[in-house]
Amino acid sequence: MPAEVNIALAQLSPRLRGTEANIETMREVVSDHPEADLVVFPELYLSGYVLDGIEELAVRPDGPELQSIAVIARENHTSLIFGAPERVENGLANSAFCVDERGTIAAVYRKVQLFGGDESDAFVAGDELLVVEVCGVKVGLMICFDIEFPEVARALARAGAELLVTISANMEPFGNDHAVFVSARALEN
Questions:
Q1: Is the pTM of this model over 0.90?
Q2: Catalytic pick from 43, 65, 86, 98?
Q3: Is 75 among the residues known to form the active site?
Q4: CATH topology of domain 7-188
Q5: Among 70, 98, 165, 169, whose Cα sits 20 to 30 Å from the Cα of 78?
């Protein structure tokens, strides 16, 4: 593990259904933080957290949206983790993409624990937990509701994760819940 990894957390609200605008904001955030080795954006950042008509906003790893983001990562020598609805074989997934500093998609994690009926109706659950090396650190990826399940974080820790990154589109009144869960997962592991 490197002595230091600079991580920027882009805690911002994306434009709903504004994929191109959100990619442009991503470009600005990354270029405004040249000291960052890794920049983390929220759950479903590319589309905004909107479920109605989500299929129109879904991306593919080889699609133009990811190609644009790969250029941002490569030009800035910065790794990126962000959320987007992903078109998969059996429907749509709520996914976390990890693009490394070379602009290569290093991993795609699909949310395992879907929240309530709305998410379960819109997305298919992932079936694999992932640990990916980012900036020399083994990172376990989670999305929002995953953090509420101790076994998810524990499995990632046992798989060698040195850092857990949880992207979220959380909203009021649940902000304090996530603060508690993050602390609990850290203490447990």
A1: yes
A2: 43
A3: no
A4: Nitrilase/N-carbamoyl-D-aminoacid amidohydrolase (3.60.110)
A5: 169
